[in-house]
Design a protein that fits this description.
alpha+beta; globular; 5 strands; single chain; about 30% strand; 4 helices
Length: about 150
């Protein structure tokens, strides 16, 4: 039986769990080893400054164990006079995958965007070789765009 999943905004008490998820995600998806102190401070910066974004966390059943997360950051669209919400740092514990955790995170995100009223859409980036993640995102309606990401 699939456990009940509840989703909430992250709080300061979730700091170390989120930082751990970020380090594990970087290792799993990009083979990058993050500096633990930087990861902690980066998460803390978001938790302490709502202007940077917010995290959602998914908790499993009555245990309230955090089994998934996503980060939302904001991009202002001057064309639409609204924000685009970028989904980042998406991670679900391997043993909790394929149990609806990401779906619940995404539903909560949609509810928050609807209640906010000033959100014109969602965006995300995914590593080209991450076929599993692409399948998940496409299954909920995300599509590749005509744009490419550049970085310096």
């Amino acid at each position: 039986m699939v456990p009940r999943i509840s989703v909430r905004r992250a709080e300061t008490r979730d700091l170390s769990r989120i930082a751990d998820f970020n380090m594990r995600m970087a290792e799993e998806t990009e083979r990058k080893k993050l500096n633990a102190e930087d990861a902690l401070k980066g998460v803390e910066a978001v938790l302490n400054d709502p202007g940077k974004g917010f995290y959602l966390v998914a908790e499993k059943g009555n245990s309230r164990e955090i089994v998934g997360q996503l980060l939302v950051t904001f991009e202002w669209s001057d064309w639409r006079n609204k924000n685009v919400w970028w989904m980042q740092s998406v991670f679900v514990e391997p043993e909790a995958r394929n149990q609806g955790v990401f779906t619940q995170l995404y539903r909560k995100l949609g509810d928050l965007a609807d209640s906010e009223g000033r959100v014109c859409g969602f965006r995300l980036y995914v590593k080209k070789s991450n076929v599993a993640a692409k399948r998940v995102y496409e299954s909920i309606g995300f599509r590749m765009t005509l744009y490419e990401i550049y970085e310096k």
